[in-house]
Design goal:
binds phosphoric acid mono(formamide)ester, Rossmann fold, 9 strands, alpha/beta, 5-stranded parallel beta sheet, 4-stranded parallel beta sheet
Length: 309
C-alpha cells in the first residue's frame, strides 16, 4: 500500500508529486463516502485532533472540523481570542498544555510564517498547516488542484492564472508549488506592487495585463485583496484596482473561449471579482469548498497512518 512521505503537512514545497496524487486518490474515495446517506467512517476513531486557530477562518476551520467528524476523530477546538494567549502565554506553552491532554494531531492557522515548522520541531504530534501568515496554505492548494482535475481532467499542460494580491497570499505560493509539481503552466497576474520579485524564479510567468492573461489561461484563480495586510498603499484605491484588475462579465464575454473561474474565498465582491462572475456557471467556487472536506479527510487519514514513524 502507498503511504505519505512525511509526518506533517507544513507546505506543498516539501511534499512529492506522488504524495499529491495519493491525496487525490484517497479524496476520491472520501468524496464517495460523504455523498452517502451515512457520511461517516471509523478511520480516525481513538485519534484526537486539536484545531488551533490563532487567526480568523470560516471555510478552513469548518471544513477541517467536518472532515475530522466524518472520520470519527475526537476534536478539541481552540481560538486565540478566547484563550490564555490573550494573557501572554507563548505558542509552545499553549500547544504543550493541549498536548498534555493526549492530542495526536494538530491543525493550526497562525499569522506568523513558519509557526508550523517551529511546532513540528518541538512537539511529537502530526502538524497540518491551515495557513501560516503569507507563507503557505497547503490544503487550499490541494483542494484547488483537485477541483481543476475534477472539472478539466488531467492538470499536466493546463494553463492556470493566479490573479490578484500575490504579495500577501499564502494560497498563491502553495498553488504555484502544487500546480508546477503536477505539470501545469502557471502565470501570476496583478499590479507590479502586488507581485514579489522572487516569483519569476519559481518557474512561473509574470504578467500585469489581465485581459491578455484571461485569454491565455484555461483557469483563472482570482485572489482577494487582503485588506487586513495592506500596511502601506500598494494601489491608489479599491475602485481603481477594480477598474484595472477586477474580473468582470464583460471581460469574460470578450474572450474567444470559456474559462473556469475559481476563488479561494473570502470574496470581496465588486473588488477583485463581480458578483455576476462569482455566481456564474463558469465559477467553481462552491465546488472548491465542497471538495475541501474530502481533500482534508484524505490528508488527516494519510498523516494518521504516519503516526508511529
Ligand atoms: N480559503 C480560506 O482559507 O478561507 P478562510 O480564511 O475562511 O478559512
Amino acid at each position: 500500500m502507498k503511504s505519505f512521505s512525511t509526518r506533517h503537512l507544513i507546505g506543498i514545497k516539501n511534499i512529492t508529486e506522488d504524495d499529491i496524487q495519493l491525496i487525490f486518490e484517497t479524496a476520491d474515495n472520501f468524496k464517495e463516502v460523504i455523498n452517502r446517506p451515512i457520511k461517516k467512517v471509523p478511520s480516525l476513531r481513538d485519534i484526537t485532533v486539536a484545531n488551533l486557530f490563532f487567526e480568523s477562518s470560516t471555510r478552513t476551520r469548518v471544513s477541517f472540523e467536518l472532515a475530522e467528524r466524518r472520520l470519527s476523530a475526537d476534536i478539541v477546538n481552540f481560538t486565540a481570542s478566547s484563550s490564555s494567549v490573550s494573557k501572554g502565554e507563548t505558542l509552545l506553552d499553549t500547544v504543550n498544555n493541549i498536548l498534555a491532554m493526549k492530542v495526536d494531531m494538530v491543525v493550526m492557522r497562525h499569522p506568523a510564517p513558519g509557526a508550523c515548522v517551529y511546532l513540528s520541531r518541538h512537539i511529537p504530534a502530526n502538524i497540518i498547516n491551515a495557513g501560516d501568515g503569507t507563507h503557505e496554505h497547503p490544503t487550499q492548494a490541494l483542494l484547488d488542484a483537485y477541483s481543476i482535475r475534477e472539472t478539466l481532467g488531467d492538470i499536466a499542460g493546463r494553463k492556470v492564472a493566479i490573479i490578484g494580491d500575490i504579495l500577501h497570499s499564502r494560497v498563491a505560493l502553495s498553488n504555484v508549488f502544487c500546480l508546477k509539481k503536477l505539470g501545469a503552466r502557471v502565470r501570476v497576474c496583478g499590479p507590479p506592487t502586488l507581485i514579489p520579485k522572487y516569483y519569476s524564479e519559481l518557474g512561473v510567468e509574470v504578467s500585469h495585463q489581465v485581459r491578455e492573461t484571461l485569454q491565455w489561461c484555461d483557469v483563472a484563480n482570482v485572489l482577494r485583496i487582503q485588506l487586513e495586510r495592506q500596511d502601506i498603499k500598494y494601489f491608489p484605491s479599491l475602485r481603481e484596482y477594480h477598474q484595472y484588475f477586477g474580473i468582470t462579465r464583460e471581460m469574460l464575454d470578450s474572450l474567444d473561449k470559456e474559462i473556469v473561474v475559481m476563488h479561494p474565498g473570502p470574496i470581496n465582491r465588486g473588488v477583485e471579482i463581480t458578483s455576476d462572475v462569482a455566481d456564474s456557471r463558469q465559477s467553481i467556487i462552491l465546488q472548491q469548498v465542497e471538495n475541501g472536506v474530502a481533500v482534508r479527510m484524505a490528508v488527516l487519514y494519510l498523516l494518521a497512518g504516519q503516526k508511529s514513524q
